[in-house]
Amino acid sequence: MRYAASILLAAAAVLLSGCLHKITPETVGQELITGKTTKQEVLHLYGRPYMKYRTPGMSIVSGDKKQVLHKGGEAWFYYVHYLGALDIVEQETLRILFNDQGIVSSYVITNAAQTAPPDSGAE
After folding, report:
1. Where are the domains of the chain?
2. What are 31-81's pLDDT values in tens digits?
């Protein structure tokens, strides 16, 4: 019985240790380097994203001029965990955009539950 309990506790510790890596604006700013960090490094840091998709990119055409706003790539999404009671009320998301070479081209942490400011008149 003790042997089984020891194995169960050890397995729980290993599984939970992967969940305890806090994604905060401070840690993201230290861990992700735009133009350098690769997909493999992101997988090592944060594990599998909860969502991925390809972005087509965006450009503006005016007459014969074309301005590229951003090139296409792949976007990965992670939940930001502060391990607090407010996770239920307010969830933030880390969005990482990779270029075609698999390098981080940008990242941002956004509040998934965006609401209109109180004075905007929106309901």
Report:
1. 22-120
2. 999 999 999 999 999 999 999 999 887 889 999 998 888 778 899 999 886
Kindly report the pTM of this predicted structure.
Answer: 0.62
Q: What are the DSSP calls for the chain, one per residue? A: -HHHHHHHHHHHHHHHHHH-----HHHHHHH--TTT-BHHHHHHHH-S-SEEEEE--EEEEETTEEEEEE--EEEEEEEE---SGGGTT--EEEEEEE-TTSBEEEEEEEESS----GGG---
**Selected residue with higher pLDDT from 84 and 49:** 49
As to burial, measured by CB atoms within 10 angstroms (0-12 exposed, 13-18 middle, 19+ buried), residue 106 is middle
The correct answer on CATH 3.10.20 for the domain covering 22-120 is no
Span between the terminal Cα atoms of the chain, in Å: 58
> What's at 123, amino acid-wise?
E
